[in-house]
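Take just one protein record:
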Amino acid sequence: MTFEVQALYEHSSGTIAEIDEQTLFLRVGGDVRDEDVAPFFEAVEPLVASRSPARILVDATYLGETSLRLRWQIIKRMRDLRSRVARTAIFGLSPRLEVLLWILFAIRRREDVRTFLWRHEAESWVRNF
């Protein structure tokens, strides 16, 4: 089950697209810089708000190395969206980052966010809510 999507926002470090009226597809890639975070989330926030409770599918397959500070910025911005997001599925993470996120989600008892190896698994889980 793979869905064709049309971009709503494109930037060198990421793309935002709509899968359906409630589900957004975020593709992050390359070496994301600190200055990329604010414009990306300025585009994401109103799209999430208009679909609340939104479902988010994140493709991290092409995500390059990022600093710990940058990861914290992204996590903080995602946390700010939490009240308007029903589920988030992330696929394509490096094994090291996947373990780190799995531990973080377990500690915080986050059942609304999961990581997956394959896109079709992530799509199925995020859309069947």
Observations:
- The beta strands are 6-11, 14-18, 23-30, 54-63, 85-91, 113-116.
- The chain has a mean pLDDT of 86.
- The first strand starts at residue 6 and ends at 11.
- DSSP finds four helices and six strands in the chain.
